[in-house]
Amino acid sequence: MINVLLAEDQSMVRGALAALLNMEENIRVVAQVEDGKAALEYLNRTHSETDAIDIVLTDIEMPNITGIELAEVLAEKFPELRTVIVTTFGRAGYIRRALAAGVYGFILKDAPSEILAEVLYKAMAGKKTIDPELAIAALDDKDPLSDK
Amino acid sequence: TTGLFFLAAMSRAEDIARYKDHRSNEKIEQLAIVAERERIARDLHDILGHTLTSIVLKSQLAEKLCAAGQTAQGQKEIGEVSRIASEALSELRQTVSGYKAKTMEQLLNKLSDRLVDKGIVTEVECDLSGLSPKTEAALSLILTEAVTNILRHSNATRAKINTHRENKIFTLTVQDNGTVSQAQQVQCGNGLQGIRERVEELQGKFVIDTSEGFMVQIQLQEQAQ
Amino acid sequence: TTGLFFLAAMSRAEDIARYKDHRSNEKIEQLAIVAERERIARDLHDILGHTLTSIVLKSQLAEKLCAAGQTAQGQKEIGEVSRIASEALSELRQTVSGYKAKTMEQLLNKLSDRLVDKGIVTEVECDLSGLSPKTEAALSLILTEAVTNILRHSNATRAKINTHRENKIFTLTVQDNGTVSQAQQVQCGNGLQGIRERVEELQGKFVIDTSEGFMVQIQLQEQAQ
Ligand SMILES: Nc1ncnc2c1ncn2[C@@H]1O[C@H](COP(=O)(O)OP(=O)(O)OP(=O)(O)O)[C@@H](O)[C@H]1O
Ligand SMILES: Nc1ncnc2c1ncn2[C@@H]1O[C@H](COP(=O)(O)OP(=O)(O)OP(=O)(O)O)[C@@H](O)[C@H]1O
Ligand SMILES: [Mg+2]
Ligand SMILES: [Mg+2]
Ligand SMILES: [Mg+2]
């Protein structure tokens, strides 16, 4: 069983994603939060005691702490957790930053749920997945943070 | 995320300033177009990206629920999909009309339609006559941004857009009655930053007040137009 | 009603040309922005409006099918909704970075599928070979809009899309057999207005005829392509 913490600020999207994943046999969405800050609070509160979460599945654009920032903090504070990012649009610099933070997946939010599930299984097996459409968008990316 | 966009906006403005020195009309035009496209892309992302994503996920869910024999729940999701899609279509139509509005009056109508459509009781009391094209252009961007912000960020039930002209001072106020938590500092995104820059260009004043809902107010010298 | 369409404002291009003489950078910038915004608005409407319309129609159908106990069919429709919405998101992603070109044939197939899907007997007889990319782009958006309008506004049971080429004049006609009450004046929305603008840009003619069903016809000079 893969235990997932889901972070997504749009409640409709969050609810549908959680319901879809919960219909998969070996995936369970243990908790749903509305931004990166809430995700960190949840993990700080529960993780060390219970080891309840295997994968953090997160949106990028969220208030307070974004998904990219979350991935960076997780890599440092909870290196045993695997982060997978779902996004609607691949914006300049996001993929590079996400990969630098060691995320296990970078895929489109609207991908068929079987594919999303597949990415989570692969992540558990230590394999990384990047959506081809997003990868193409990233080819001529200039990272706005390092490229002033 | 705001940080990212802010940098992009800055360099765009710098580019434009640099090219102005060279008096290269074509390049000015080109850069203005690119900047505008970026703005629209952002708008689109916000307006349609979420909706379409919700539609994809909910319809997938409905399909799976039906397949699993949970027809009642599936049906409920389908109903929501159709409602969301209708809303998206009307939002798209309004956005398009807003982009195409040619007079200030048309624009005000479009904007107040968008608010009313979202169930926000809207009061418009504006005299936008006799403004220079430059002021008009600035005001239309400011109005559009302020209204988009209400739609995106506030939980307002009422909104007011009004102008006041006195002693050669022109004041435009856009006010909503949403709850803005005082702790939460207002972080300027591209939107408010853009308003600030435009008002600055016109040597005007720009105020944000969150003591009662969210208020954006700008003041311009009438002669400066 | 066609008369209305020719009362359009002066073209943006002319505005820009005139201001260039005055070397007014600001105005050039502003006009370029307005022109770009209008262009994107039009494309948005054409590309996404069509898709969202299909989504609304299909999800409503799915809802009805489920309610009538035809769950399997309902499931199929809702599956298509998720596929179409996903495509729309892809399109939206591409609108931001540029425009992808579909072949005219693919487009015609897709459009006639949508009509047939709605139970409208559709006849397509088109020669769209050897057109310039600009003409192709305009025609695909015009076709998409005309078909979307049939889906949305008509009670037609038959539709015909055909081209005719003679004496260096290219004619495209989209005709349905719905009932259009003669009393009801056709009011231009964004869709027909967008067609009119595109045809004007190509120095062509645009006619709407509602004497038998609804007909949209455009004519272009072949050399003008
Ligand atoms: N009417 C409002 N009610 C509540 N909060 C608001 C309102 N308008 C703006 N804000 C707050 O101010 C912030 C900055 O607004 P701004 O328009 O600069 O950026 P944005 O809307 O987040 O993004 P964009 O760059 O697309 O405009 C918003 O993120 C939001 O938190
Ligand atoms: N095939 C048709 N049959 C009957 N009426 C039509 C047909 N096509 C257009 N109309 C009428 O013409 C009007 C204007 O069409 P137009 O495409 O400009 O706008 P719209 O479809 O209403 O909205 P949108 O801006 O989204 O396209 C429609 O509202 C409808 O009343
Ligand atoms: Mg988000
Ligand atoms: Mg804003
Ligand atoms: Mg139409």
List keywords for this structure.
A: 148 residues, alpha/beta, globular, disordered C terminus, B: 225 residues, alpha+beta, 6 helices, 62% helix, disordered N terminus, binds magnesium ion
A few lines on this structure:
The complex is a heterotrimer, with 1 copy of chain A (148 residues) and 2 copies of chain B (225 residues). Helix content of chain A is 44%, strand content 20%.
Could you walk me through the main structural features you see in this protein, from its secondary elements to its overall organization?
The complex is a heterotrimer, with 1 copy of chain A (148 residues) and 2 copies of chain B (225 residues). Chain A is α/β, with parallel strands linked by helices. Helix content of chain A is 44%, strand content 20%. A 6-stranded parallel sheet of chain A has the order 2-1-3-4-5-6, with helices on both faces. In chain A, strand 1, helix 1 and strand 2 form a beta-alpha-beta unit. With 225 residues, chain B is of the alpha+beta class. In chain B, a hairpin with a 2-residue loop joins strand 2 and strand 3. The chains are: A alpha/beta (148), B alpha+beta (225). Chains in contact: A-B, A-C, B-C. Chains B and C meet through helix 2, helix 3 and helix 5 of B and helix 3 and helix 4 of C. Bound molecules: adenosine-5'-triphosphate (2 copies) and magnesium ion (3 copies). The site of one magnesium ion has 5 residues of chain B, from helix 5.
